[in-house]
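Cross-check.
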Amino acid sequence: MRTVERTFPSPSRVGLDLIAIEVGSDIDLDLRMEAVSEGVLVTGTVHAPTAGECSRCLEPFTSVVDVYLTELFAYPDSTTEETTEEGEVYRVEDEEIDLEPVIVDAVGLALPLQPLCSDDCLGLCSECGIRLAIAESGHGHDILDPRWAGLAAKFGVESNTSENLVITEAEEK
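Predicted model, tokenized:
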């Protein structure tokens, strides 16, 4: 058994479209590698900073990802290697193991598909696009109900003066 604690810069962007470990960010590994009958069992944690864009308000934010790994790297000519297809199990090649694809796969699965800058992010106003977190209290827009538009035009009624012809965003929901 051997333990490995290393920090190295990310050689490439690791993650998803909206959130990832950026190139050059430090990735911390704390791994335990054990020789077992079928190969090398790698267990441990990966810790790295992430940068992303909130899927609701589109603001940039930073976070961290912590991933726990458990992966078997099969020895050449082992039963595991012989009974699995290519790509189903990682392999020991030339007495070395390549951790990069394991880390890429694990981080990709651990990151959220729709990342948020905070759990209570309000997003953007559907009418004007302003971030609701910075909008004034009671932010809203009067929207003329299209079913009444012809009648309003005939009588010259403006959408912001006729309360009966206007639907607020709160009433739509």
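The CA atoms of residues 144 and 166 lie 5 Å apart. Helices lie at 79-83, 100-110, 149-155, 169-172. Passed to J.P. for a second look.
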